[in-house]
Structures are given as structure tokens and as C-alpha cells.
Amino acid sequence: MKSPYQGLPRRNFWRTGVADEAPETIQNLYRHKFKIGRKDKVATAGSCFAQHIARNLRGRGFNVLDMEPGPPGLSDEQLKKYGFSLYSARFGNIYAVRQLLRLAQEAFGEFKPRKWIWERNGRFFDALRPSVEPEGLSTPEQVRLSRMMHLSHVRRMFEEMDVFVFTLGLTEAWENEESGTVYPTALGTIAGSYDPQFMSFKNYTHSQILEDFLAFRALIHKHNADVRFLLTVSPVPLTATATTDHVLTATTYSKSALRGVAGELYQTYDDIDYFPSYEIIASPFSKGKFFAPNLRSVTEEGVQTVMRVFFDDHDPDGQQKTKQSGGKPTGTASETRVKKEDQEGKEICEDALLEAFSS
Amino acid sequence: MKKLCVIGTSHVGALKTGWDAIKAEQSDWDIVFFGAPDFGVTERLRHVKRRGSKLVSVEKYTREYFKVTSGGQAEIDLEAYDCFLVQGAGIGINLIMRTIYSFFRSERHAMSGGNVLVSEACFSDAVKGLFLSSVAARLADEIAAAVDTPAYLVPSPCPSEGLLSATKTSKKVWMEIMRNWQKIHAAGDHIVLEDQYRAGLDAVRAQGYRLIDIPAEFYSAPCFTKHEYCKGSEWLQDAKYEASPDDDYLHMNGRYGATLLKSFFETVSRETG
């Protein structure tokens, strides 16, 4: 019997598939399981890196849902500052799959979070999406009202989307065990002060993450039977770990577990695809060149390489559509002042705040 | 004699009528008007672009309006004037109400169903951005890029207080505006909106634009103009200046225009000597 490797294409071998290739030009790294067309209603969510995906899909003319658009007059930078248009609804970053599951459960009335309004200096924050109003609101009632309205948009997003693009970011999270409420940041990071009685640290395992995603998928299918899922894993390392491990070890665990879950879901379910943004940025293939000097942030070149691979497959004939600015001519001060400071695509990340705690 | 170029929307009607009434006593000034009314929520003046030292409309209706209102000139020769005044064109309180407040509420406003609640900082940033990205600001930039001539901006009029007691108007869009302002007033939000509007104007000034205030004597309450400045209003419509309907609470009359122009002349003379 011949070797099962005999006759396999070049992409199956490391030397010809990777060592002889360059990230900027590689072909056939990704083959879609299902096509995402420009008419498909795409919803995006996930960790910071997912912001790049949403931005580039929009820029390319894909139908990325924006259920909670921001007020006219805000620049792109200000929209990001207030959590608008980063994703398909104003939920901020969703780092852990359990956090995503809780959001969906809450949106469909199956979960009530506890102690999710935090106070700092007389201002009140939605602890489940603290970055969307950086200075908070005046009263807890306003935070409650704002969340209620937000959830109605999230529900509609889940019901209407054709494709859900989710970037798995972290395994580490903070949870109120009694209620199951998952927070994107620990108390004390943005508001309040850390109370171990109230909030405990979680580092989810492969099986927990898998179970959470399947529960999420089942819930969404109840309301939207035909939706498909595209998973990616964020290549961005942890800013900090709350485990006893070194942050490098913790990052490797986190990314490995997430990548493993994504792989298992991809292999098992026809409606779940996996896109290898993690491999493009973080594997030896790119020799680390897509990371900024902090070895954490992904450069714009890296983002564009990721998106090139994605569009080569999903939209090979598409042209980059430049965003029109309402017919206004470019080049004047009034234009450049409020317009697109978005060129570098700097993302909004709560976990970057943890940097402040390092000494 | 100094030559003033006034660029504006349908509200230019009040300025033109006011000018006709006072020009005999304003021998230092001559004015050429270039007006193009908004078409629904579409600003016709956004079609006006700079080509060298001229402002030119790339859309035919605006060109036609310019010809009619200026007495035959389809283009604005920027070198031909001593001063510019851009009225409204994206700066005004009604615009805040229609584009932001109708969909978003700041934490300082009274809430009502359906509107998205945002922080005061967010709402305020939106107002500032709206004004700073207005057609008026862009036209001032275009003028500054071509000539050293001062270009002033003046907000479009605040609505007449008359709409607070009105029960109906002939146009559907006015009806909606009337109801919205009545609700705003009933909720007390007009006081907050006035603050946000003022902060927006300050942001325009802070960026170096010459923005002149609407004279204080026009105001009856925050956000509203005394009805005496609205009664018998004139607007630019259908390529001519004409009396606007009695149930138009958004356009002002010649007295408003004359007072505004006099105040403007005083400002210019104070600033430029």
C-alpha cells in the first residue's frame, strides 16, 4: 500500500505549504466551508481582534449588521470610544464564550445577571460592557434602561443574522458563581473594588468552552435555524494572567484551548467554519513580523494579510470600497477634523487596562 | 463700498427681505445672495465645491438657484467679495433636534420610548461633530483655502415659539417637527438642548471659525424665536423669494433678517475696523 501522504497537494506539507511560502502571497491556506456573500447579513462579535474583521468586512462592502448605529456627528474614533459600530451591536468586547452565552441567554430572557451595575466616583457603569460609556451614566436606572434597549437590539441581531462571525479571545474570565454572571473585567479594573467573595477567577477548560459554545449555538438555532457560524481565534496574547502561571504559559494554554475548541467545532458541525487568522499572525509562518514591538498588538499589515486571505476566498473579485463621506469633498479642515482617524484601525480593549497594574 | 456674499438655504429669504428694507441706510455695503433651499433633509449646498477661486455647484438645481438669487451668477467668484456670510447650512438647533435628538437622548434629557440613551459626553460630542462637519464649516474652509477674505457663519433660526401652541400645519414634515418641539418643551428638554447647542457653537468657534451669535432679542425662551420675527416670514422656495405659509414656524421674516444683518455689520466693523 502506498503511503497515505503520497500525492497529497503542496499545502499538506510544511516545507511546500509554509516554509516556501510567504504570508503576503500564500494561497489555499483557507477554504471556506460555506460561502459568505455580500448580501448575507453578517453579525460580528468577540475579542478586540474581531473589531478589525468587522471594519474590513464593512470596508469591502459586506452586509455587516449594525443594530445600534451611533449618533450622526461622531467621528470614527468617537464612535469607537462610545462602543458604536465596533461590532453588530453595542456589546463591547466579548472575550470568553461563557460571556457570549450569557449575553444570548439574557437577550432571550433566559438569564438575569446580578450585580452588573458598578459605581465609580458617582457615575454608574454597565459592568457587562463597561467600555461603551467610558464615563458612565448618572444613575443606575439609566444604566438599566440602556441595557434593556441594548438587549432588544442584540435579540434582533441574533434573530436576523445569516452568519455569525465570532473571535474567541480568552479562557480567563471573572464570574459571580452564584448567578453565573460573567464580567469582561475584574472589579477594580474599571470601577468598584475587587471582592473575592463576590467574584471568582475562572480559567475555562476546553470542555467547558466547547459546552458553552454548543449551548450558545443551540439557543441561537431555536430563534434562527439557518444561521451559520464562522469562528476565528484572536492571535493577540494575554495582557496579563490571573493564574499562577507565567503570562506566556497562560497565553499558550488560552490560545491552545480556544484553537482546540474551534477545531473540534469545525470538524464536527457543517454550519461552523474556522478561519485561520491565528495561524497567519501567531504561527512561525509569519516569524513574528505581524506583531508590534510590544509583541502583542497586531500591526495593520498583519490585519490586511489576514483579510487578504479571507477575501481571496470569499470575495475574490471584490474591490475595496472606499467609504463615501456623504458627497463631501476631501481635504478641508472640517473634513479631516471629524473624519476618519480610523486609518490605523486601533482597537478598543478593556484588557489593555490591565497593563496599568504591572509594575 | 464693501461687497458681501451671503450663502444660505431657504432662510436666505429673511435676509434678502431684511436687506431690501435696510439697504438704503447701509451705504457701506452691497450684498449678493446665493441661496439654495434644502431638499427635504438633503442639503443642496453640499453640491457646492471649490474650483480654483470659485465656488461651483456640481448639481444643476443649485446652479439654477444661484443664478436666480444672485441676479444671474451661477458661480461664486471668491475674489469678488470683501466678506462672506454663510447662514445655516448644517449649523442650527433644528438640525440637532431632527438628526440627533429624534433618535438619541442624553442622560440629561427626559427619556421616551425608542430613543437610545447615551451619556452627555457622547451626545455633546455628536452635536459638536455635526456642526464641525457641516456644509457651512466646509464652505468656510473652502473660502479660506482660496482667499484671505473673512468668512462668517451664522446659525439657522431657532423655530418660532408659535409652534408650541399650533395644532396643525399644512406639511407633514412640519407637523412632525411641530410635535417634536412641543414634546421637547413639555419635557423641559429645550433647556438642555439649548446648552448642548451653545456648546456646539463654542466648539465651532474654538476651531477658529468666525461664528456670529443670533441676536439675543430674537429669543423668547431657550431654543425658540419670538413669534413676532416669524409672522409674515419670507423664504426662498421654487427658485424665488416669497411669503412662506402662515403655518411655517421655521422661517423668519424681513425684520429678523434686517436685525441680523445690522448685528452682523456691527460685528464685522468691530472685528475688522
Automatic annotation (TrEMBL), chain A:
InterPro entries recorded: GSCFA
Domain named GSCFA: residues: 41-310
Bilayer-crossing regions: none
Region span, Disordered: 314-345
UniProt biased composition (Basic and acidic residues): 336-345
Polar residues: compositionally biased ranges: 321-335
Listed name of the protein: GSCFA family protein
From TrEMBL, chain B:
Protein name: SGNH/GDSL hydrolase family protein
